[in-house]
Automatic annotation (TrEMBL):
This is CcmD family protein. Keywords: Membrane, Signal, Transmembrane, Transmembrane helix. The chain crosses the membrane at residues 38-59. Pfam families: CcmD_alt. It comes from Dyadobacter subterraneus. Residues 1-22 form the signal peptide.
Length: 75
């Protein structure tokens, strides 16, 4: 679990540099339309749900794997 926490912390700290905003001249018309309609939050919510699902699934697999490893080491 410690390794996962360090990995997530590292990704969080490094992601700040990846979130550079484009200049106004390079604006994407589709994103502007979604922002104007207020639907950009739907996109953000769906992406957040997908990433949360992936993270939860990874943690479940990690816990199951640890349980199996403990069982194999005992026998």
């Amino acid at each position: 679990m410690k390794r996962v926490s360090i990995f997530i912390l590292t990704l969080t700290l490094l992601s700040g540099k990846l979130l550079a905003q484009a200049a106004e001249t390079d604006a994407v018309p589709m994103a502007d339309k979604l922002r104007a309609d207020g639907k950009i939050w739907v996109v953000v919510a769906v992406v957040a749900i997908v990433f949360a699902g992936i993270a939860i699934n990874m943690l479940r697999i990690d816990f199951k794997l640890r349980k199996i490893e403990k069982e194999l080491n005992i026998k």
